[in-house]
Design goal:
mainly beta, five-stranded mixed sheet
Length: 143
């Protein structure tokens, strides 16, 4: 019985961190989760977030350019990443490009400021980031 209990505890110890990472409260993912104003939320490419109490949805379409300095490389400039997003309000969609390290880092949509605040993963020399692996952090605040 002790052996079964230990193996059950080991399985739980391995499964719990995976489960917690999979359902983080700020990760809006692909489901179109509702996010609170002023809170940072994370989207994967194709993921949509809807602003709580507002007629505004934001979709992270793709990373259109990533020239960030790779980890382990000494660069003269930190580089930048550009993401394409779509904002839908009142049934109308508008496309926008946001940058991480140069303007524009944000845009005003339906009386709210949408801002790109971080992107993951970091680039690694000699290894391109697969398009589906990107995760972008955004904020939406009332103007």
């Amino acid at each position: 019985m002790l052996i079964r209990m230990r193996s059950g505890l080991a399985a739980l110890a391995l499964a719990l961190p995976v489960a917690l990472l999979a359902c983080g409260p700020a990760d809006a993912g692909r489901r179109g989760d509702t996010v609170g104003e002023g809170r940072t939320f994370t989207l994967a490419p194709g993921g949509t977030a809807r602003l709580e109490g507002a007629d505004l949805a934001v979709t992270f379409t793709r990373v259109s350019q990533d020239s960030r300095c790779p980890r382990g490389v000494q660069c003269v400039w930190e580089g930048d990443v550009t993401v394409d997003v779509e904002a839908v309000t009142g049934g109308k969609a508008t496309a926008h490009r946001l940058n991480l390290n140069r303007e524009p880092t944000g845009v005003t949509v339906a009386g709210h400021d949408l801002r790109l605040v971080a992107i993951r993963p970091d680039r690694v020399a000699g290894r391109p980031v697969p398009a589906g692996d990107y995760r972008a952090d955004f904020t939406l605040t009332r103007r």
